[in-house]
Design a protein that fits this description.
Blueprint lengths: L4 E5 L4 E6 L2 E6 L7 E7 L5 E7 L6 E5 L4 E2 L5 E5 L5 H7 L1 E3 L4 E7 L2 E6 L9 E5 L12 E7 L16 E6 L4 H13 L5 E4 L1 H6 L1 H9 L3 E2 L14 H9 L9 E2 L8 H9 L3 E2 L4 E2 L8 H11 L5 E5 L5 H14 L9 H7 L13
Parallel strand pairs: 7-13, 14-15, 14-20, 15-16, 17-18, 19-20
Antiparallel strand pairs: 1-4, 2-3, 4-5, 6-8, 8-11, 9-12, 10-11, 12-13
Helix pairs in contact: 5-6, 7-8
């Protein structure tokens, strides 16, 4: 669509541009600390209003990197609107996850952190900076986040005819996205395992029927996405019995990987065994589709179980390219026959990263 019309109030010059599929609005000088309203009108008739407050001169008035796919070696910087005490700003600077690097000052009001090595690929990084102004008054703490891009793997581990099992958790309120997932799986002849919540499956029986009819498995992810290890045995039993596929599939994937010896005992008493994953795509974090592809291709091994989510925004865009890349590397994209092979391999360790929410 064409460029939108912009109206800033109180008035100030504005210039729209596109960066990575996002609308970026630059503006002229604003009154420090003043409240503003930006009205955006698209050619098709859609409108949006954004309210914000201009930074005080005693705050960080510019910073980087911002959201988006960021070079892992990009410097992290903040520019203040007033002269500042350099030592106090440097003492306040925090980057999480931590990284080795050096702080310097390209000019009197800009602090810059240059990493010694690439920042952790794909991880969400948090920056915090404060300190004191040159007159001794404290500066408010500024916090922002960014995510370094994930580079392509040097090579994909050959599949040698082994399966790579696609699994999809949870469910989505956007049924067009849910149906498109089944369409993509059918188009590319992929047989997956779905782990919707029981409440979602009960609300969409036609979806479950089609998934089963097209050769997918529909298995248990609890009734309401409860953390099973926090429940009494009685409530846990109710959550598992109310899960999708109860009585038809003996696989249980506990939400948020919240399992324990007690959860496994209760699940086993109901005829279930745990089914976790080897590779977490991290699509639940909102990764860019290209980063999803690079992350999975860099971690996949013969027999890997791959974790995705039905509601994640970038997953559907990544899947077609993943299917092609994995088949090219020699993987079978099916759960059929994989169950026996995975049992023989001795179980399903989880990818050693943060569990999804």
């Amino acid at each position: 669509q064409g460029p939108p019309s912009l109206q800033l109030w109180p008035p100030a010059p504005v210039w729209p541009s596109w960066q990575g599929g996002r609308l970026r609005v630059e503006h002229g000088q604003l009154a420090p600390g003043a409240d503003y309203r930006l009205d955006v009108a698209w050619p098709g008739g859609a409108t949006r209003r954004v309210a914000f407050r201009a930074a005080s001169l005693r705050e960080v008035v510019a910073r980087g990197p911002e959201v988006g796919r960021v070079d892992p070696m990009a410097p992290v910087w903040a520019r203040f609107g007033v002269d500042v005490d350099h030592a106090s700003v440097e003492a306040s600077f925090r980057l999480t996850p931590p990284a080795r690097g050096r702080l310097d000052w390209p000019d009197a009001r800009t602090v810059r952190f240059s990493p010694d090595a690439p920042l952790a690929w794909g991880d969400l990084h948090r920056v915090e900076v404060a300190g004191r102004a040159a007159d001794g008054e404290g500066l408010p703490t500024t916090v922002w986040k960014f995510r370094p891009l994930i580079p392509p793997p040097l090579a994909v581990t050959p599949g040698e005819g082994a399966p790579a099992v696609f699994t999809f958790d949870d469910g989505t309120q956007d049924m067009s996205q849910a149906w498109r997932l089944l369409d993509l799986l059918r188009q590319h002849e992929v047989r997956a395992i779905l782990f919707p919540t029981g409440s979602w499956a009960r609300a969409h029986p036609d979806y479950v029927e089609r998934a089963l009819r097209e050769g997918h498995r529909v298995c248990n992810h609890s009734s309401t996405h409860a953390h099973l290890d926090r429940l009494t045995d009685e409530r846990m039993t109710a959550e598992i019995v109310g899960g999708a596929g109860h009585g038809q599939c003996d696989l249980l994937r506990p939400p948020a990987m919240a399992t324990s010896a007690r959860v496994e005992r209760v699940a086993a008493s109901l005829g279930y065994r745990m089914f976790l994953w080897h590779v977490d795509s991290r699509d639940w974090e909102g990764l860019h589709p290209q980063d999803l592809i690079h992350r999975v291709l860099g971690r996949v091994r013969p027999g890997s179980v791959l974790l995705f989510h039905m509601q994640a925004p970038g997953t559907l865009d990544a899947l077609p390219r993943l299917f092609v890349a994995l088949r090219t590397a020699g993987y079978r994209l099916t759960h059929e026959g994989a169950d026996h092979e995975l049992r023989a391999a001795g179980g399903l360790p989880a990818d050693p990263v943060e569990a999804p929410p």
